[in-house]
TrEMBL record:
Keywords: Transcription, Transcription regulation. The keyword Flavoprotein does not apply. This is Helix-turn-helix domain-containing protein. It comes from Halopelagius fulvigenes. PANTHER family: DIMETHYL SULFOXIDE REDUCTASE TRANSCRIPTIONAL ACTIVATOR (PTHR34236:SF1). Residues 182-233 form the HTH bat-type domain. It holds the Pfam family HTH_10. It comes from the Archaea.
Amino acid sequence: MPVDDLHGSRSRLTLEIWHPNCWTLEVTEETPAGLLAHTVFNAANDRVKGHFTAYGDTTAAVDELVAAAEQSPLTHSVVEMQRRHDFRGRTPPGNTSRELFVEYDPENSMSDVFIANDFVQSAPVRVFDGREYWSLFVDDDREGVRRRLDAVREETNADITVTKITRADAGVDAATWRTDELSGRQREVFELARKRDYYDWPRGISARELAAELDISKTTLLEHLRKAEAKLLNPDTGALS
């Protein structure tokens, strides 16, 4: 989405990002699981510790991601947390999740660069399939936003795509934002179903044809759609699906 579409000064941006030497991008590209990045703390030796939720459709997928994080040359330690209280405020996507503290070098993170350019993070960072998805606030006009993003790109050598821009005080359809609650696979299946007019009447494609296009069974397709629809229609139930 072009930055020229921005109107007003205080805005919310949704960004899709790739940048080099990032352990979260590497492990999510290598494994069928994802990460939610919550909070970063200062650690010893000029390192940081980040609080992450690893999530996936199966326990094996999450185990694979944790093992990849432990073996990554870009991490120094990975510690699993015993969850006593759900302090994140929302249920992670996927069927299973695990809380992690990961120690790593801050120069491989985007957080400090965004802060230095006056962006304010408004939600946990979603990481899956080798991409980060950021939701940020910024108080500037469109030219200022463009300059700030260019400065971030230059400093980090990051590939940044603006996928959504809205005024921070504008009403946003809740269903649009709730798609962030879907796992990567659920979102892929749901978005393709919408694109192929599966939800139109009469339907533009059958479940069997849609499953064949995705190279999965009809049963698996319907299970992904059921879980996606449950999260979109009932976002506050707290059910892990």
